[in-house]
Design brief:
Strand content of chain B: 15-25%
CATH architecture of the largest domain in chain A: Alpha-Beta Complex
Oligomer: heterodimer
Number of strands of chain A: 13
Largest interface: A-B, 34 and 48 residues
Order of helices and strands of chain B: HEHHEHHEHEHEHEHEHHEHEHEEHHH
Order of helices and strands of chain A: HEEEHEHEEEHHEHEHEHEEE
Number of strands of chain B: 11
Structural class of chain A: alpha+beta
Distance between the termini of chain A: 58 Å
Structural class of chain B: alpha/beta
CATH class of the largest domain in chain B: Alpha Beta
Number of helices of chain A: 8
Strand content of chain A: 15-25%
């Protein structure tokens, strides 16, 4: 069998036509890195055992520019993003599908690097890649690579994460600093020359699942504040639970380089995406224990209480460091870097 | 990792806040009205809202936003000219992102892009030079907007294009200068400003001395401010002390960034590449010597020479009060369109488009219509 010289070859339309080149791509590239048993028969559907409990199913598509950025790449994002959606639902991640849409002309070396990252991230997260698909679009009709992943997980019957359990007086914990991913990607894309920024891209279930095992009655709700950032997640929570939320600006963990970089560009870090953080609504009686538990884990070292649930009707307020209170809203339109 | 402020900074901020409030109250008692202070710069407008200072000071200082958002002060006919350029055959427009959505009388660049014209968002003018080099068969026109802060970077791009002898790179210069606009506002009898909070970034380029005329000729107190809450409070205190004492000086309350004479390198580039020209400001009208046009030596890079057009002034959108907002005569929330017919998703006027625009800042931080 001929091996790719991935350094010089690029993706052509024929790689997506189901013929010889498609098969070559599968056998030489995908199967070289994806070793899960369920994938090997290459049937139309993967047949999978499923343990007792409720099934959790989630899907997400990943489009990011640049494909590689400090702290991660589209491959790690595509795995961890879906793993995290399962984890904040209380699910243990089991199976992952990977759908690729490739742009004609994509160097195979770049594809290979993404595939290696997907395989590594999945192995580290303990999730099996069980089926996949590849399509190729004409040059100019895509941004090199788009990835869709669907994740399947299982939720133990004793886990009950539900915003309807939230009561005034409950406390909001954020598992770490906000804004790192969003700013790192913007800075890498636009080549702003901001130093030291790094995406927080990580799989959170190694922290979340033990947390839920230990605090199933007092941890009431979880969400990963990805697109739209912390502010958007809080607004969505307040609206669905029909409560008000008071956040403390000083308590929200933010790295200095993110705060400074966002300021320079005129962006609000509360609205920047995160890929390795979650917010939890916790019964007040358990706050200290939950915080201590989170801080023992490398992904929760900077966990902090950032706010409180109040009676209300879906509004979010931020108490600023100066003691003023301002309301947070859903973002209206894109955040654009400013001119002056 | 440190949170927003250390304990000491917070203590200092609170002490400053108390002094600002009590001084403002004393002035209000003396004059029978709150002191009127204009924050010239859009970044200050945003910072005042974001930190909550605006709401903390609402009872004691009448804070007005000024003409300090580059997109906002771009005149409607300038936007129409940009649209005309975008529709020329073989042209790629290179522009800062904020400009794309600003409506002119014939639509916006965003709309032109949907119609199939080439609009490319850049974050620095030099990207446009790169674009010109990699597209030798296309005409690249960079839309030069902004104040003294962005103009030097545009000047550098023009110099680079000259060194490279690029034949397919031009700029449309709609640059505007802050001091002449402030002179126009300071002399406006309708406004009755008691003090000006001067822009920190522009001052870093032009230096404190470029604003001294405000005190000398208009007897108007002014203070150059940075963008942290402490910077702004410190500068406000400087202003209030002057207003209380009936003095007028231009205080540099941002000395860690701003010097007396500014940035000589940036000024040299401006002098080398541009010369002064009259410029039409949205809201403020035609102000002599408040714009920049390319010098004789660089006229080959002037898009208005290659694509001349006699352009007529066009009226602002119906009902839009951007002009009055930019002059500090209206608060954004006093515009009848604010938050109802004009939002960041469907902007009618430019002040709702840019993140630095007063209307967008008011909308983002407090959606109440007036």
């Amino acid at each position: 069998m001929t091996k790719y010289n991935s350094m010089i070859e690029t993706i052509s339309l024929a790689h997506g036509d189901g013929g010889e080149l498609t098969h070559q791509l599968i056998s030489d590239l995908f199967l070289r890195y994806f070793h899960d048993e369920a994938l090997q028969p290459l049937n139309d559907a993967a047949l999978l055992p499923f343990p007792a409990g409720r099934l959790a199913l989630t899907t997400d598509s990943f489009v990011v520019k640049p494909l590689f950025f400090p702290g991660g790449n589209i491959g790690t994002l595509a795995v961890n993003g879906t793993v995290n959606d399962l984890a904040v639902s209380g699910a243990r991640p089991l199976y992952l599908t990977v759908g690729l849409i490739l742009e004609e002309g994509l160097p195979i070396s770049v594809l290979e690097e993404v595939i290696v990252n997907i395989a590594t991230a999945a192995r580290e997260a303990g999730i099996a890649i069980v089926t996949g698909d590849t399509k190729v679009v004409e040059h100019g009709h895509g941004d090199l690579i788009y990835i869709n992943t669907t994740g399947i997980g299982v939720v133990d019957d004793c886990i009950n994460l539900d915003y309807r359990r939230i009561r005034p007086g409950d406390v909001i914990i954020c598992s770490g600093s906000v804004g790192d991913h969003g700013l790192a990607v913007i800075a890498a894309r636009e080549n702003f020359g901001l130093e030291g920024l790094k995406s927080d891209c990580a799989a959170l279930h190694t922290l979340i699942l033990p947390l839920l095992e230990n605090f199933s009655s007092t941890v009431k709700w979880l969400r990963d504040p990805t697109r739209g950032g912390l502010a958007t997640t809080m607004k969505e929570l307040a609206q669905s639970a029909q409560v008000n939320i008071i956040l403390s600006e000083e308590a929200i963990p933010v790295h200095d380089n993110v705060r400074g970089g966002a300021e320079i560009l005129g962006l609000d870090y509360l609205y920047l995406a995160n890929e390795g953080k979650f917010c939890a609504v916790v019964d007040k009686i358990a706050v200290e224990d939950v915080l201590a538990f989170l801080r023992r884990h490398s992904l929760g070292r900077e966990a902090a209480v950032i706010g409180e649930i109040k009676k209300g009707s879906g509004r979010v307020f931020l108490r600023t460091a100066l003691g003023a209170t301002r309301e947070l809203y859903l973002l209206s339109g894109l955040q654009l870097p400013r001119i002056c | 990792m440190e949170t927003w402020s250390t304990y000491q900074q917070k203590e200092l901020a609170n002490r400053l806040l108390l002094r600002v409030k009590s001084l403002a109250a004393a002035i209000a008692g003396k004059y029978g009205r709150r002191p009127v202070i204009m924050e010239v710069c859009g970044t200050h407008t945003v910072a005042l809202s974001r930190t909550g200072l605006r709401s903390l000071l609402a009872g004691c200082i009448d804070l007005r936003s000024g003409p300090g958002c580059p997109v906002c002060v771009t005149a409607p006919e300038e936007i129409d000219y940009m649209l005309f350029l975008a529709r020329q055959p073989g042209v790629i427009i290179a522009t800062f992102g904020d400009m794309v959505r600003v409506p002119g009388s014939m639509g916006s660049l965003e709309k032109a892009k949907i119609e199939g014209y080439q609009i490319q968002v850049c974050y620095s003018p030099r990207e446009a030079v790169t674009l010109a080099r990699s597209n030798p068969d296309r005409e690249i026109i960079f839309l030069g907007i902004g104040f003294e802060t962005t103009a030097p970077a545009v000047g550098l791009a023009v110099k680079e294009a000259a060194v490279l002898r690029l034949k397919n790179f031009t700029i449309y210069s709609a640059h505007k200068l802050v001091p002449p606009a402030l002179a126009s506002l300071a002399g406006d009898p309708e406004l009755k400003l008691d003090g000006l909070l001067l822009p920190g970034h522009v001052s870093a380029i032009v230096g404190r001395w470029a604003f001294t005329f405000l005190a000398k000729e208009y007897n108007l107190p002014a203070a150059i401010a940075g963008f942290e809450a402490l910077d702004i409070l410190g500068a406000l205190l400087e202003l209030l002390v002057q207003i209380q004492e009936g003095e007028a000086q231009v205080i540099n309350a941002y000395p860690r960034v701003v010097s007396e004479k500014g940035n000589p390198k940036a000024q040299e580039i401006l002098r080398e590449v541009f010369s002064l020209a009259p410029s039409n400001w949205r809201g403020l009208g035609l102000i002599p010597l408040s714009g920049l046009k390319l010098n004789n030596a660089y006229q080959a890079f002037d898009a208005t020479r290659r694509w001349p057009l006699a352009i007529r002034p066009s009226p602002p959108p119906e009902g839009c009060r951007c002009g009055s907002v930019l002059k500090g005569l209206s608060l954004p929330t006093q515009c009848p369109l604010f938050g109802r017919h004009c939002t960041p998703l469907r902007p009618v006027g430019p002040c709702m488009v840019s993140s630095e625009g007063s209307c967008a800042a008011y909308y983002r931080y407090s959606r109440k219509a007036g």
